[in-house]
Every structure is written in C-alpha cells, then in structure tokens.
C-alpha cells in the first residue's frame, strides 16, 4: 500500500473518466454537487458523501482533500480493513467494495455520533422546559433544534441515495462487473460474461452488495427517524413555550386593564374633588358635614364605578 498526490490531468488519464464525471466529486464545486451520490462508471466508482469525495477503482482509490474530517474518518476506517491480518482467514471483499463500505460506515458513524451528542441535550431541555424559561435555556433549545435539522437533512439525503441505488438493479450489476469482461443489458438487466466463473462471482457479489446497502440503509433510517422524533419533540416544546408565554402575556394584559379601570375611577373622583376645590362659593362649605359627605360620596362613587366597569368587562369576556 502506498500513497501519492496527483493533479487533475493525471487523474483523468489514470482513471479513464471524463471531466464531467470529475465535476460530480470535485470539492471546489460543492455548490452544485452537495447531495450525496454514488456514480458507477466502467472502471471507477465516484463517491460524494459530504466532506468525503473519492474515486474508487479496482486496485486504488483517489481521495480529494483527505485531510478534511470526512477524508480522515474514511482513511481511518479503510486502512485496517485492507490489512490481511484482519480478514481472519476469510475471503476478502473486492477492493472497490471495501472502499464503498468504509465510506458508508464512516459517514453513518459520524451521523450517529452527532445524534448521540445532541440527544442528551434535548432530553435535558425537555425536562426543564417550559417551567424554566431563561435566555440561556432557550438559546440551547434553538441550537439543538438547528443541529437536529442539519442532522435529519444529511441522514435523509444519504437514505435517499441508498434507496435509489437499491431500486436500480442495473447500477448494482454495473458495480459487480467492474474490471471484468462482462456487460449488462439495459432492457432486462441480464449479465453476460466471457467467462462463466466471472458471471458466478459477479452474481455472488451482487447479493453481497445488496445486503451491504440494506444494512447501512437500516442504520441510516434509524438515525434519521430518531433525529426526526427529537426534532418533533423540540417543535412541540416550542409550541408549549409559545402557549405559556401567551398565557403570561394575557395575565399581564388583564392586570394592566384592571389598573387602567381603577385609574379611570380614581380620576373621576379627583375631578369631583377639583370642582369643589375651586374658589367659588357653593354654600356647601357652610355645612358642617358637607366635607365628610362629599368625601364619602366620591369614594363610594369610585368603587361603584369600578365594579360596574369590572362587571361589564367580565360580561363581555374581556377579563
């Protein structure tokens, strides 16, 4: 096993691919090829799994930006699998299938680790909310929801890619005949090989590939489903928080309305007191009990007006 760096021209020459094929895995064109994909060509498999972009051939693999997170995880998963000591004496898988499995395994394991990281945080938030509404808790909920949306999107894209491959037996058979003198008819997907042994091996590999893809599809569906469930729980909690806040705002509005009614009634009493405070003779000042009667009348009138307004608002279901 050896490694070396090559440029684009050398890559095209050694792989037999076209320039448009390279564009599907070129990291510099991530805006146009961001969706996961596994493209099958006559002599190569083109893998696009987020930060992992690779071209797998019969005996070698080209990894773009191998120092990125996806490339490092892929190499960490692939290199031990290529060690003959780790085969336990059993038959080794074809190299290109080892590459595909290592790529899928590294990708799904990274998704599962992210899920395991965000799941306890969401569970802890669901326990304290909505009773503990603080800025830090709400910010943690927002970040957790954002992480779940991103995780669900990535897992969903990978799941759709695996489903598309499994639903297309023609592509699976094209993977099986790589490096062999075989052809696959487009109409009925029949496999024709110059050697019967090649056809037998290709058919066995076809079953192996389907089982491999089914296995990782189940893991991807599990990860995607759990992320969606956590996201639904977070959204329900947001709805509960919104209802809680609306209830609190309603209580505050009711208190404000009661204070405004009370202020209005007191203001009417102050108006009456102001009228009697003018320097005009009303002859009431000559009576001994006029002050106390007027004061009592103002208080009783203000209280009566308050209860009348309160009863009216209750009858109209405003309070």
TrEMBL record:
One of its GO terms (cellular component) is chloroplast membrane. One of its GO terms (molecular function) is magnesium ion transmembrane transporter activity. The keyword 4Fe-4S does not apply. Keywords: Chloroplast, Ion transport, Magnesium, Membrane, Plastid, Transit peptide, Transmembrane, Transmembrane helix, Transport. Pfam families: MRS2-like. It is a multi-pass membrane protein. The chain crosses the membrane at residues 257-278, 290-313. It comes from the Eukaryota. It is found in: Membrane; Plastid, Chloroplast membrane. Magnesium transporter that may mediate the influx of magnesium in chloroplast. Belongs to the CorA metal ion transporter (MIT) (TC 1.A.35.5) family. PANTHER family: MAGNESIUM TRANSPORTER MRS2 HOMOLOG, MITOCHONDRIAL, RNA SPLICING PROTEIN MRS2, MITOCHONDRIAL. This is Magnesium transporter. It comes from Acorus calamus. The lineage of its organism: Eukaryota, Viridiplantae, Streptophyta, Embryophyta, Tracheophyta.
């Amino acid at each position: 096993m050896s490694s070396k760096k090559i440029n684009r021209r050398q890559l095209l020459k050694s792989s037999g691919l076209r320039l448009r094929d390279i564009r599907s895995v070129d990291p510099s064109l991530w805006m146009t090829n961001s969706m996961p994909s596994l493209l099958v060509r006559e002599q190569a498999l083109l893998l696009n799994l987020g930060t992992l972009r690779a071209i797998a051939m019969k005996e070698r693999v080209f990894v773009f930006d191998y120092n990125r997170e996806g490339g490092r995880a892929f190499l960490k998963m692939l290199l031990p699998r290529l060690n003959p000591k780790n085969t336990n004496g059993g038959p080794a898988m074809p190299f290109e299938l080892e590459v595909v499995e290592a790529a899928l395994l590294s990708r799904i394991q990274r998704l599962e680790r992210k899920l395991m990281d965000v799941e306890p945080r969401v569970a802890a938030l669901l326990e304290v909310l909505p009773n503990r509404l603080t800025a830090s808790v709400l910010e943690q909920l927002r970040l957790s929801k954002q992480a779940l949306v991103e995780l669900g999107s990535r897992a969903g894209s990978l799941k759709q890619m695996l489903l598309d491959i499994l639903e297309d037996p023609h592509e699976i058979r094209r993977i099986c005949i790589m490096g062999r003198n075989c052809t696959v008819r487009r109409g009925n997907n029949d496999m024709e090989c110059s050697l019967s042994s090649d056809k037998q091996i290709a058919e066995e590999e076809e079953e192996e590939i389907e089982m491999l893809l089914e296995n990782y599809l189940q893991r991807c569906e599990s990860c995607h489903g759990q992320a969606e469930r956590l996201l639904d729980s977070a959204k329900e909690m947001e709805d509960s928080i919104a209802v809680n806040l609306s209830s609190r705002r309603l209580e505050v509005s009711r208190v404000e309305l009661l204070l405004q009614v009370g202020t209005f009634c007191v203001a009417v009493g102050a108006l009456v007191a102001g009228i009697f405070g003018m320097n005009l003779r009303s002859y009431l000042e000559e009576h001994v009990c006029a002050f106390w009667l007027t004061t009592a009348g103002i208080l009783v009138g203000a209280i009566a007006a308050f209860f009348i307004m309160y009863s009216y608002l209750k009858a109209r279901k405003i309070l």
